[in-house]
Amino acid sequence: MEATAKATHVRIAPRKVKIVLDLIRNKPCDEAxxxxxxxxxxxxxxxxxxLKSAMANAENKDMDTSRLYISECKVDQGPTLKRIRxxxxxxxxxxxxxxxxxxxxxxxxE
Length: 110
What we know:
There is one protein chain. The protein has a three-stranded antiparallel β-sheet with strand order 1-5-2, covered by helices on one side. It has a two-stranded antiparallel ribbon with strand order 3-4. The chain has one domain: CATH 3.90.470.10. Helix content is 35%, strand content 36%. By secondary structure, the protein is α+β, with helices and mostly antiparallel strands. The longest helix has 17 residues. A hairpin with a 5-residue loop joins strand 3 and strand 4. The model has no long low-confidence stretch (mean pLDDT 95).
C-alpha cells in the first residue's frame, strides 16, 4: 500500500529541488523531516509541507505512520514564467522564472 502527494507550480527551479530530494530519497519519514528541517536550502520548506501532506494521506489510508519511508520522489519542470528586465539603450532581457511539479510516494517498510 502506498500514499502519494503532489505539489504543482511550485515557484522554485527543479534543479534546486533535485539537490534536496537526493538527500531524502529512501529514508524513513521521521529522518527525512529532520533532514528537511535543518538543511539550509530554499526547497526544504515546500518539500517539508509536501512530506507532511503525504504522511497525513497515509494516515487516512490506515497505514502505520512509524514504518513509512519515501519510496519515490521526483521533480519535473512546470511552466516557465517569462518576465522582462529593462537594460541599457532601450533593450530588454528576458528572465525565465522556472516552476516545479514535485511528487512523493510513501510506502510501509516490511
